[in-house]
Automatic annotation (TrEMBL):
One of its GO terms (biological process) is peptide transport. SUPFAM superfamilies: P-loop containing nucleoside triphosphate hydrolases. The keyword 4Fe-4S does not apply. Belongs to the ABC transporter superfamily. One of its GO terms (molecular function) is ATP hydrolysis activity. Keywords: ATP-binding, Nucleotide-binding, Transport. The keyword Repeat does not apply. It comes from the Bacteria. InterPro entries: AAA+_ATPase (IPR003593), ABC_transp_ATP-bind (IPR050319), ABC_transporter-like_ATP-bd (IPR003439), ABC_transporter-like_CS (IPR017871), Oligopep_ABC_C (IPR013563), P-loop_NTPase (IPR027417). It holds the Pfam family oligo_HPY. Residues 9-253 form the ABC transporter domain. This is Peptide/nickel transport system ATP-binding protein.
């Protein structure tokens, strides 16, 4: 493994349900368990609405789970309250898809970058400029950006500012929620290379949410595939073409590639409503392999000796 097998985060049987106005429950995460190791990039992929963003918002303590636990270094962070919860946020930081939504357009970049440090009283007002310049160097931006405002720069530069701000507290875990999806391909590549460089230097653990399977397979050590609130497969990023779960295979066939000789096949059927989860396998209504048992019993995620996990009645890892 290119990363240490030292657990930094354990997501354990997380269920997240939301009550809707008519009194029913919408299940966004349905018994999700994942482990993140030190220095690892763990990708989470799946169609829109599969629950990946809800899962990371639960990790970020933006949502309280309905059931389950999330352990950071052995401490269940879902049970932390008040000042203990606030202090723990230093260890897990997030980069969003659109940094403009998270930035105050009237604040200078140096104040935006150093805001988390000021909030935790780690630096004084007169140290902001120097610290901002240090963080700008880490994300390979000129020191002159310290005096600028967020409206006065490109999307790629703003995303570097967002990364600098997320790194300010020297977190152990960085959560990137579609953080490169809105960028042009060439800018995206530079931001991804920067993330890889920073990760190696700082031994960061990264959760990378993305719908781009090609990017995830290149960037991530492991990839977890989510469908309808469930993890259906976990495999190495460089083995993504050897995926076995019918849903992952269908996702791969639906991706456009210039090198691919096979025709693109759209994934048939709609994702069932999370308000009315089917009994049995969540993928049953779209799966060409579906059998009787798939409609009766939900398959459990089984791990084999080489670290490949699959939740399917018909396929072993
Ligand atoms: S359990 Fe059955 S329905 Fe689900 S993916 Fe496997 S074969 Fe398809």
């Amino acid at each position: 493994m290119p990363f240490e097998m030292e657990k930094v985060l354990e997501i354990s049987h997380i269920v997240k349900q939301f009550l809707v106005p008519d009194g029913r429950s919408l299940t966004a995460c349905d018994d999700v368990s994942l482990t993140l190791y030190k220095g690892e990039t763990l990708g989470i992929v799946g169609e829109s609405g599969c629950g990946k963003s809800t899962l990371v918002k639960t990790v970020m303590q933006l949502y309280a789970p309905t059931a389950g636990a999330i352990y950071h270094r052995g401490v269940d962070i879902t049970k932390l309250k008040g000042e203990a919860a606030r202090q723990n946020r230093q260890h897990i930081q997030m980069v969003f898809q659109d940094p403009m939504q998270a930035f105050n357009p009237k604040m200078k970049i140096q104040d935006i970058i150093c805001e988390p440090l000021r909030n935790f009283a780690i630096i004084k007002r007169n140290q902001v400029e120097e610290k901002a310049k240090e963080l700008l160097r880490i994300v390979e931006l000129s020191e002159e950006f310290a005096e600028r405002y967020p409206g006065n720069m490109s999307g790629g530069q703003r995303q570097r500012i967002a990364i600098a701000r997320a790194l300010a507290l020297e977190p152990e875990i960085l959560v990137c929620d579609e953080a490169t999806s809105a960028l042009d391909v060439s800018v995206q590549e530079r931001v991804v290379k920067l993330l890889v460089k920073i990760q190696k230097e700082k031994q960061l653990s990264i959760i990378f949410i993305c719908h781009d399977l090609a990017l995830v397979s290149k960037l991530c050590h492991r990839v977890a595939v989510m469908y309808l609130g469930n993890i259906v497969e976990i495999l190495s990023g460089d083995a993504i073409l050897e995926a076995k779960h019918p849903y992952t295979k269908a996702l791969l066939r639906s991706v456009f590639s210039l090198k691919c000789k096979e025709e693109i096949q759209l994934l048939d059927g709609e994702v069932p409503s999370p308000l009315d989860l089917p009994q049995g396998c969540p993928f049953q209504d779209r799966c060409v392999e579906c059998r009787g048992i798939c409609r009766q019993e939900k398959p459990v995620l089984k791990l084999n000796s080489d670290g490949h996990s699959i939740a399917c009645h018909l396929i072993s890892a």
